[in-house]
Amino acid sequence: MTKTNLVGAFLIAISLLSCSNHDNNSTTDLYPNVTATFSGKIDLYNLSNYANQSKPAYITKDNTAGNPITDKGATLGRVLFYDKNLSSNNTISCASCHIQANAFGDTEIASTGVNGTTTRHAMRLINSRFANETKFFWDERAATLETQASEPIKNHIEMGFSGTSGDGSISTLIAKLQGIGYYKELFKYVYGSEEITENKLQLALAQFVRSIQSFDSKYDTGRAAVQNDNQAFPNFTAQENQGKNLFLAPPVFDANGIRTSGGLGCAGCHAPPEFDIDPNTKNNGVIGILNGTGIDISNTKAPSLRDLVKSDGTPNGPMMHTGNFTTLQNVIGHYGNINIAPRNTNLDPRLTPNGFGQQLNLTATEVNALIAFIKTLTGTNVYTDPKWSSPFK
């Protein structure tokens, strides 16, 4: 090779190396704060898949409405979800009460906020997107997930930007976030502008929460092998199939509300395959409150029964809005003998056959079978997938 050719080859190599280095450093060049803060957790040029996750063909419900999940939007939502800067004293994030290891629920009865403890137990967020009920919170006071997303931030107890009781307002939070370098970059990356608004916060947080899905359970394997839920699942044990049948079939009651035959009717309020709550459901007979005196008969929402327990069968935290049920036996026992409290004017009529609080007259075999079936609704990936984990660790 001539000297001229050697020089030319050297210059080409230097040029290629320069281009390669520019490509490798382009994220740093354009998003230095994101790169420095979330190194190894978020790569804006190689985003996690939030928008195009697969789901079973038999899952048909979807409350996304006008805010479809995007990889960019959900990535921003993930940062917001885990960022303690969203609380007034920088100690609480959404993830403080909705923990990935607990199916995005809390092991505490009442979650700790910046100004005390919450008035209801934190609800699990699994499969929030795949729900027939589009309202959120235990009392369904939020018409959409977008509305719900900023309400804890604006709550005096939870995250402290209520605009009351000496708190700053949501505008105070926005000004705070506007001064954080990685948010300037992320909002421009997602929305084309560094401007932060409550609506943009809501959209991104809702996209991230809706992306959290769990469809790799034993139930899903069995459901994919049959035409409908009423058929025996080939991968189930006899006990699990018995529990499924009890869950699905309605009970037969006598004139006094005592079950004489049939199933347990759980599917009347928690229909498969989503196992979310029926939108027409009223109070379930639990009327206690966590703080103060009185009763709470407005709770009509419930999370999906999917991932109610971990893969080892232990619950992902206490159950009901009061958090006072710690085992599946407690829950089944409650529905097995419904007490009609005199002041509960909102009790679901499905729990009061012939005007009496239902008595399911359960046997130990039936209880064990139902528990065995509920355990089949638990997946594995949602507990460990890094795209739903904290980007700050």
Automatic annotation (TrEMBL):
<dbReference type="GO" id="GO:0004601">
    <property type="term" value="F:peroxidase activity"/>
</dbReference>
<keyword id="KW-0560">Oxidoreductase</keyword>
<dbReference type="InterPro" id="IPR009056">
    <property type="entry name" value="Cyt_c-like_dom"/>
</dbReference>
<dbReference type="InterPro" id="IPR051395">
    <property type="entry name" value="Cytochrome_c_Peroxidase/MauG"/>
</dbReference>
<feature type="domain" description="Cytochrome c">
    <location>
        <begin position="238"/>
        <end position="378"/>
    </location>
</feature>
<dbReference type="Pfam" id="PF03150">
    <property type="entry name" value="CCP_MauG"/>
</dbReference>
<keyword id="KW-0479">Metal-binding</keyword>
<feature type="domain" description="Cytochrome c">
    <location>
        <begin position="72"/>
        <end position="181"/>
    </location>
</feature>
<keyword id="KW-0575">Peroxidase</keyword>
<protein>
    <submittedName>
        <fullName>Cytochrome-c peroxidase</fullName>
    </submittedName>
</protein>
<dbReference type="InterPro" id="IPR004852">
    <property type="entry name" value="Di-haem_cyt_c_peroxidsae"/>
</dbReference>
<keyword id="KW-0732">Signal</keyword>
<dbReference type="InterPro" id="IPR036909">
    <property type="entry name" value="Cyt_c-like_dom_sf"/>
</dbReference>
<keyword id="KW-0408">Iron</keyword>
<keyword id="KW-0349">Heme</keyword>
<feature type="signal peptide">
    <location>
        <begin position="1"/>
        <end position="23"/>
    </location>
</feature>
